Amino acid sequence: MIRKNKKIKVGILGATGMVGQRLIALLKNHPWFEVVAVAASRKSKGKKLGSLTVYSVEDDIEIIAQKCTLVFSAIEAPKDFIQKIEEAYAKKGLPVVSSNSAHRWTPDVPMIMPEINPEHLDIIPVQQKNRGWTGFIVTKPNCSIQSYVPLIHAWKKFNPKKVIVSTYQAISGAGKTFETWPEMVDNVIPFISGEEEKSEKEPSKIFGDIRNGRFVLKNTPQISANCIRVPVSDGHLATINIQFRKKVSKEKLIKSLKNFKNPLDVLDLPSAPKPFLTYFEEPDRPQTKLDRDLHAGMGISVGRIREDSVLGWKCVALSHNTIRGAAGGSILNAELLVKKGYIKK
């Protein structure tokens, strides 16, 4: 796919933030992509990130567009500003692969979890026609849903009806460390602004269909979410209670995870974990510290599948929020776009 020594030149918007820094680290030795431009706010313009000088995301669009074939957006700013900036780069003919929420509900922008809905990339030509641009915007879903949406998808043949999920989310999801957020040491905060709404609603777009150039949402299963901030550096743990319309056994649930047919397996994408889903038989796994880096932080780990007296079944799942849920997930989206021909080398 990519000739040796000829890599796709990429830029990172929001390069000084936590997700931007993750992108830089993950792309350092990437076989397909080479970072040639980094950009941030005006106050960071002119500073150095490694060997690269920081551009302004809003003032240096023309320069970045000339240097790059695509840009990753990890901007930390108000929603309307992010929308404006991402659209400006798409107007310049660049693919914009975003980890932000700004365009997740834009009607012609796909929200991609590659193992689940890669066919949603089919709306890109519609987006380009609607907007009259040759670039495009693709985004990824919220970090909070990375662990349990794949399970719902893997178990779709059992007709999931209702899901109650509680997520125990790391402080890096707020762009913080223990040094910058000492209030989180020995503390739990039972509220993350906007997180529960995203967790409940975004799956409806991921599980939906494209009909006549528009997304048709799928509002089953019903999802009720509790999102809690816990004193952990990285990794979002989730407890999931789920009701199925069809009768199912523990053995069948585990088998469905282990035999999950991953559409990426035939594409040979550098960041795609193999396997995507890992089930732990041990009663005390997955654990955040032990398992968040599974398959370079891109794997989803599951454990403790057992019967539940209220909804029928329950389990625990884990994902790495700044890798799988942010930077790594965006890189995987970009790899998929290359393989599908939407990004040219």
UniProtKB/TrEMBL annotation:
Entries under Pfam families matching the protein: Semialdhyde_dh, Semialdhyde_dhC
Annotated GO MF terms: aspartate-semialdehyde dehydrogenase activity; NAD binding; NADP binding; protein dimerization activity
InterPro entries: ASADH-related, Asp_semi-ald_DH_pep-lack, NAD(P)-bd_dom_sf, Semialdehyde_DH_NAD-bd, Semialdhyde_DH_dimer_dom
Gene3D superfamilies per the UniProt record, alphabetical: Dihydrodipicolinate Reductase, domain 2, NAD(P)-binding Rossmann-like Domain
Active site residues of this protein: C143, H236
SMART domains membership: Semialdhyde_dh
The Semialdehyde dehydrogenase NAD-binding domain, residue ranges: 9-124
BP-aspect Gene Ontology terms: methionine biosynthetic process; threonine biosynthetic process
Coiled coil segments of this chain: none
Superkingdom of source: Bacteria
Protein's UniProt keywords contain Oxidoreductase: yes
Keywords (A to Z) from UniProt: NADP, Oxidoreductase
Family according to the record: Belongs to the aspartate-semialdehyde dehydrogenase family.
NCBIfam families per the UniProt record, alphabetical: asd_EA (TIGR00978), PRK08664.1 (NF006416)
Protein's recorded name: Aspartate-semialdehyde dehydrogenase
Organism name: Candidatus Nomurabacteria bacterium RIFCSPLOWO2_02_FULL_40_67
